[in-house]
Amino acid sequence: MTDAGRATGPAGEAVASAGANGLRYHRILLKLSGEALLGERQYGVDPTFCAFIAQQVATVHAMGVQVGIVVGGGNIFRGLAASARGMDRATGDYIGMLATVMNGLALQDAIERAGVPVRVMSAIAMNEIAEPYIRRRAVRHLEKGRVAIFVAGTGNPYFTTDTAAALRAVEIGAEVLLKATKVDGVYDADPVSVPTATRYDYLGYQDVLRDQLKVLDAAAVSLCSENGLPIVVFDLNAPDNVTRVARGDRVGTLISAQPMGGNR
């Protein structure tokens, strides 16, 4: 990765600025929920929707953006829900990590079909199907123009894939964490059940924690806050939103250290 358009802050975080190629962010971490891969299905992976995601990744990759992805496993198995029904929490979480590996392989296939080289890196060793996650190797993949898909969460139970996304984003020096959702940002109430809910344009990390807004878990928000990593919460269903975020367009809700006025 070139140094053009990037600087490094005192805590080691990447600081984005618009470069000659019109990009605000040159290295991003995209967080996808497992449910996003359902598409129109009730369970499993919808190849059509995977192809839709892959096309967005291919478009932003062609612009010169380095892309890391963390994917959840809720479309196949959710450890916390299994724990609530009596399963040992650690066991449930490990099963959920394996679900993220399956999703990562499905995404790998879809993105490769879109013409982009991909590597799947797992926090749990399974050498026959994925590389072990090694931070320096992950950064090298990105620098060589490969998309890196990080699976198996952090490799530890009791941590969500949101936390894994924040951790990987900080480790690889991503300039922004993109949290893909089914709605166009963060609201003060569920917009599906509350039609009058108000969307926030900007939020501070402490706003999210204080108001217990459930867009990401507290550990993930705290990790981003400690490392000055901005979060953009956006609607994955719009076909050009990832590209627009990379260009610095106003999309969804920006969560950062200093809310930038507007509708808080």
Fold and architecture overview:
With 264 residues, the protein is of the alpha/beta class. 34% of the residues lie in helices and 20% in strands. The strands form three sheets. A nine-stranded mixed sheet has the order 6-5-7-4-3-8-12-13-11, sandwiched between helices.
Question: In terms of topology, how is this protein built?
Answer:
Elements: E1 6-8, E2 14-16, E3 27-32, H1 47-62, E4 66-71, H2 79-84, H3 89-113, E5 118-122, E6 131-132, H4 135-143, E7 147-151, H5 161-172, E8 176-181, E9 186-187, E10 199-200, E11 202-204, H6 205-210, H7 218-227, E12 231-235, H8 241-247, E13 253-256
Parallel strand pairs: 3-4, 3-8, 4-7, 5-6, 5-7, 8-12, 11-13
Antiparallel strand pairs: 1-2, 9-10, 12-13
Helix pairs in contact: 1-3, 1-8, 5-7
Classify the beta-strand content into a percent band: 15-25%
User: SS-based structural class?
Assistant: alpha/beta
**Based on CA inertia axes, which overall geometry fits?**
globular
Largest sheet: 9 strands, mixed
